[in-house]
Amino acid sequence: MPKVHSKPCPATGLFSLIIFALVIALSLPAAAQNAPIPPPPTPPAAPSTGPTSNNDSASTPSNTQAQDQSVETLKVNVEVVQLFFNVKDKHGALIPSLTKDNFDLFEDGKPQTIKYFKAESDLPLTIGMLIDSSGSQMRVLDMEKEVGGSFLESTLRPKDEAFVISFDVDITLLQDFTNSVSRLRHALNVAKINTGGVGCSGGPIGPQGPIPCSASGQRGTALYDAVYLASHDEFSHEVGRKAMILLTDGEDEGSRLKIKDAIEAAQKADAICYVLLIADRGFYGGFGYSGDTEMKKLTQETGGRVIEVGNKIEKLRQAFDQISQELRSQYNAGYVSTNTARDGSFRKVEIRPKQGDYKVQARSGYYASAGHED
Q1: How confident is the model at residue 361, as a pLDDT?
Q2: Contact indicator for 255, 232 with CB cutoff of 8 Å
């Protein structure tokens, strides 16, 4: 009630004001009884570590919008499991415009009910680019920098972010999360071939303790350690869609961790792994190359894939184009598991198309830990 400003009044005026005040005071209880009950306050929005959408509105959502709740809400609910996946025909072409009625979903062989289903081409995307700077990449590193930078420039949107890591005998975070393409390009250009001279005292904490920059001073390529580091120290703190892109020949010669540790870390971080297999076979003299085997395990378990590039810049451009199309053509299925235990166990998830000619590219499962954010 606004304040009333008045001049001093005579006694009769003062008496009238007192009577008026008494009448108002006596009427307040009755008015309070008849006043409508105010609605409960709207709870504050869930916190998000990523940028907000430009389409946010202050208006009240319709019933349809409320039921088709955004993934921003789902991603902070530990009871909801999210699956980002692609669907392709028998020729490898992406299939758009499908609905949840086109799929059956299973966890550990038991059917699950899909609560949320949407094409997520515009959901914020986090990309981690890991570039191999070991001796085997000496002839192809420059083309990786050029094409990788062009991919980030064409793919990143205002609400997306990326980071860059180089790995050789050492693991270096060249650029942390940013939306600046110029900073990301600069980080890629900083990467240089390194075959020795580890320059740090330690690394991230792994299942067996601190990960050194190289294993016992052995010179090689700490590929598995780099995947673990990107997953555990970078992706695990993010929400939403996450894609790790490795430019490498797939050979690991210096990691303390094993491929299974790298896969587990990527699965716990919900990061889809793509490997652009850039193998300069001339470096190996035609012998001893076997990097594709473990890379196929990594990508199949996380919902990505291996793309053979060799040392051809045009194949590298085509590979990045394919990844960009897949990331912009993903589906997102959300469900509440019938298994409510949060025991840290691995749950195998399978989403099957009801039409037999379709192939689903999705992660193989998730870890049901209490602190897991799907």
Answers
A1: 97
A2: no
